[in-house]
UniProtKB/TrEMBL annotation, chains A, B, C, D:
Annotated binding of NADP(+), by residue: 39, 45
Names of the cofactor(s): FMNH2
A cellular component annotation (GO) from this entry: cytosol
Ligand binding (FMN): 130-132, 253-254, 298, 313-317, 339
Protein name, entry field: Chorismate synthase
Biological function: This reaction introduces a second double bond into the aromatic ring system.
EC number(s) reported in the record: 4.2.3.5
Gene that this polypeptide is encoded by: aroC
HAMAP family linked to this entry: Chorismate_synth
A single BP term in Gene Ontology: chorismate biosynthetic process
Organism encoding this protein: Limosilactobacillus rudii
Keyword NADP tagged: yes
Length: 390, 390, 390, 390
């Protein structure tokens, strides 16, 4: 299984192709659209999100709502492309009229400057249109298809927010709650947090930060439950599934840190408090008494819930702009302000959840014969049973 | 560029093949052996390290000390294989005599149990011989060749220890020191730490932990300097170099968290304290005033030193053994004790440094025409000059 | 560089994404459309081609006609989807009305039967809609972009027809003609053949075959000139460029054989008649006196024109249908007739030319720093000069 | 599954690593050595083969004769390295004494000249030591492991010789013989041909060619039987298994053409003579009445035997040397004669057989869950049964 995306932030559309989804899977397009809506929500966002209501179209690989086994092509139209149809026109040659809105003042914390140097762009719009987090919309669409695939195999997941700026919501790494319970809690507020009592506090933090022209990051957690043991392998450095997940999560815009289970706390704790002791009962086979390691041992899933944490830096664009330099005149000045979210931690939690879904769906479909979803289900069921009987 | 390794902990040898090292590179084998010795050192290690003195042999791709451009084959003989020549014999059939030392009590925190389930092993030695951190020796050998390649291009790096258990040595993320200065400091003690004043304190912590039959993890930092801007790309989720580095570092045994620059602190700080403002002077071109982001923007190197942090969990094997279950009888019992380091944070810092070297060498050789090292040097020099003149 | 395509024959559109085209390349969309028209032409085709006039749209990665360095997304709408909008509807659930035109009689020589077994389809339309050669239209669009890239580097190519059924047009393997001259000749007739005197003969063969309800294959040749020596490498089995080209060409629908230069004749000839002797002159450096080996030695381009031959089997669909079996009733019967070309050798020559272009563009951009087309041009020029001075 | 090899022709050893062989597979090392002996045999070979008797050692991934699931490391020592220990010394610096036997006269038809230009070697020994067909020994060792894996799944194969120079032995493409019968026939002579009556004729051809100082190529066929339908896929250009096989076969030294089934004859025949009509009986399910297409439709195996043909050019090294140019003085002269086989068609047939085995084993292990051979067997059996019941 692999996928690729294309499209610029104000271009006509985002396009994605994913290959390797089994034939015979019924796709609920409304679920994809709901995930896209979730990605556009959350407290602390600016106005742009309000004008877009992303809708996916599937233009290949699907027939009568069921996958064919051929590559799936997905499209999300950019609704405000209408206002940019000249400036971002794919084919009409550059003119004085359509090259307004040039970007020549690279924004610190963005790809602007280095992207310009690497690709020899002098209008940095040619960089930021692609490096923008707008692209994550199509990753969410692809990820939701993967979530639907995983759900068919009874693998459930949720991404949510654990920390906004300096406010930690939940520090436990082995929550007593399951995915369904977490979902209920975090979808009951606009911060995707577990502790309803902290909503007002964090709203207030965001409001104050916004008034100060500043921005906030946070920490995201993704939990996945009912993953069979043995996905990934210890045999080589690049067969470890936790390593692949870490790469995928770090590949989300603005993520600067990734960890599993207790994560950086593991570095502090004594060994006797880190390992998850092994238990056995005949009905369920082997299990662990705790989950400090976040569901991974030796790069393999161990049957416990996967717990991934991701640190998101604050959105770099500030109303209180930072020092930069004009790439043409070389004059120092203040960076452009291009958008206006105070924090994007809520949408980022959706994106991280979805890239985790993609990697897990890939792990499953790469490991098992996956031409057809029913055959795959049968195989996974037999494999689960074998694990119980080990 | 890509590489693969093979070999079991007590088998005859570790073997590695790396393809894509340019022709014409002079390899100093003694430097590789020095890196291997560093990996075997450090306070807090058990006795096994003392009997091994790893030496690399290069058996392919090298002639008269100079690379040919063909794949390099590396061998590290396992010096104590002599004692295991029957038990780990590759070809002689299993007998009563050579199947002693079976492992049937999976150790929590290791690959043992899940490896047995996945591959259907009932003697878990068949798992742990490969999942053992012994394999990292050959990764260090490969990594050191990559470091020698990078050094030819004036890219320098160092891995060291920032935290042992709960003792933090250095919390600054933008150290005033360069690689050479750090190297001097961290090689002046057996903990690879910057602050000589903390050596006694940490020795004491390790000694006490050892007496208590417990183990310690820690935090590792790798710093790389003089990396040209523009390695990696923002254009796709899997072209981001920080994502690849995160994957490679998470692929090191016992690493549970990876971050860049300020890492998880970025989640806490305000945006105005996270971004690295842009500066310019004609002689050096663009630079940053700070390095909170650890040398990456948009998944690309930005010309500032790369700063990677890795959280290592404590070694799972404890003198104070944990609860497990016999995989055959299903009886609960205490896990086997197979080795005896109190902490492996020093060797892990060498390993992490070397896997970073491999990924960076890969990034450079994949990006530029790299058949011959002199041609590559010329290209990189021209590219660096172009960046200054942007 | 890599690419992927999606889309079914009667679905809404074909979609392709290609990543790795350098920034700064001006794309002439009309040239792509011309290549698409060429693919739809040629003597011996049925009626479907006449109703389609493929037009490419570029919906990502291009701005004002110039590549951005981000992935390019290409779309070709299927013009007759209007007539299939229910039957091939991606999302509306299956009903009695929209599941007419089921295919339950697998056609010998097509993917129908095995595709049904592998993916568990019982309506084989779910297979043939993707396995159809319709998909090659988007490969041609991608290939033409690659040809435009290669032309910027002065690499020129042409695909043409050497044999139709049993009629051989040109047997010489080292034609005195260059690409421009061949182009002129083969575009002067509707068979893409060099010898105008054989046009009537072959038209007659095709007409007779059509009347007999039968079909014809043929042999295609692709010639590429001005390729720098040293693309590909002998160092590993999977770094050989001729091997990659062979794979790509064999990946075109209906191709059953691939060879380079004299190809299968090399098996018959004596060694003294096969090797290309080496010459030298100061102005041009090294060259070969002949080109029996078709431009490859040791898996590397050797600076002589690349000569690739491909054997195409006849189109399997026959008016004179073959024995098959109903996949549901298991009754023997005659296979469905779904389309009506007598030979597709002309369009196949365009497709093969274009997949060769893709592999060569990949070889060039993978070998050299290719973020920006101007930088790439400079590098290639320096490399060419170095070869002359070797 | 993937593999890589390293090692030079006169270096200390050849090394190979293959990852992805299931755990639990019993490896018969003698079978590997027999395949290595077969590769060294055949009429028409020079003296070098007589001094070498290749023996494989397995130094990783195997314990007590059974695979562990970890990467397998294989070594074949070069027995005449003793005579080259200075000239090909990996580490001792170049001196006057150890740089004798320089090669400065590139041999036409070899990688020598282009390899020198690409990697900037002036002693072309640095090229030919790796580009030599010596490397295929380790590919055969890896391939034989794959054959043993496939045999466990009841997939059998044989490579043999169909043509030597201009003498065709067998032109039938759908032989009535099965693999076992072919094996008996072709192993009854030293040419690996089916027709014992042609042995004298071909011996005579080889003898005459040798006296004339010339060399011979030929055509190889590989047949594989009992391959389940549905390996590979039509869904994308690079999922087609015939395309991958074509690439792997073209990646064997001296191969210039590859085809399936009737191959280039398909280009000549009418469609009604090319397609393989479909049959059905309840006990065996679907089958084909003929096998013109060599076991592939739509890039997938169709359950019929796989038939691959490969055209081998004559060995370029001639006693009657060809024109070349000294790479340093630029003087024209006659090419070095480095070895002395008159034809290597017999060993090449073994090599091609083995690379086919590797690709098929890869296709199987990539498609199915392949951690353990018994689980894999069960899956394949269920899949085969499903195909019968389709």
């Amino acid at each position: 299984m692999h996928y690729i995306t294309a499209g610029e932030s104000h271009g006509p559309q985002l396009t994605g192709i994913i290959e390797g989804i089994p034939a015979g899977l019924t796709i609920d397009v409304e679920k994809i659209n709901q995930a896209l809506a979730n990605r556009q929500g959350g407290y602390g966002r600016g106005n742009r999100q309000k004008i877009e209501h992303d809708q996916v179209e599937i233009v290949g690989g699907l027939r009568h709502g069921v996958t064919l086994g051929s590559p799936l092509a997905l499209v999300i139209k950019n609704r405000d492309h209408a206002h940019w149809s000249e400036i971002m026109n794919p084919t009409s040659p550059a003119t004085l009229a359509n090259t307004v809105r040039r970007v020549e003042h690279p924004r610190p914390g963005h790809a602007d400057l280095v992207g310009g140097m690497k690709y020899r762009h002098r209008d940095l719009r040619n960089v930021l249109e692609r490096s923008s987090a707008r692209e994550t919309a199509i990753r969410v669409a692809i990820g939701n298809i993967c979530e639907q695939l995983l759900a068919t195999l009874r693998i459930q997941m949720i991404g949510y927010v654990q920390q906004v700026g300096s406010v930690k919501v939940d520090d436990g790494i082995s929550p007593a709650l399951n995915v369904t319970q977490i979902k209920e809690q975090v979808e009951a507020n606009d911060l995707r947090i577990l502790d309803q009592d902290k909503v007002v506090l964090i709203h207030d933090l965001i409001d104050r930060t916004k008034r100060a022209g500043d921005t906030l990051g946070g920490v995201i957690r993704v939990m996945v439950e009912n993953v069979p043991a043995g996905l990934g392998s210890y045999v080589s450095w690049n067969t470890k599934l936790d390593a692949k997940l870490a790469g995928a999560v770090m590949g989300v815009n603005a993520i600067k840190g990734v960890s599993f289970g207790d994560g950086f706390k593991d570095a502090t704790n004594l060994g006797s408090h880190v390992m998850d002791e092994i238990n056995y009962d005949a009905a369920h086979g082997f299990s662990r008494l705790t989950n400090h390691l976040g569901g991974f041992e030796g790069g393999m899933t161990n049957g416990m819930p996967i717990i991934i944490n991701a640190a998101m830096k604050p959105i770099p664009t500030l109303y209180k702009p930072l020092q930069t330099v004009d790439v043409n005149t070389k004059e120092p000045l203040k960076a452009n302000v291009e958008r206006s979210d105070t924090t994007a931690i809520v949408p980022a939690s959706i994106v991280v959840e979805n890239v985790v879904a993609i990697e897990l769906a890939k792990a499953v479909t790469d490991a098992f014969e996956s031409s057809n979803i029913e055959r795959l289900k049968d195989e996974i069921n037999r494999y689960r049973q074998e694990l119980v009987e080990y």
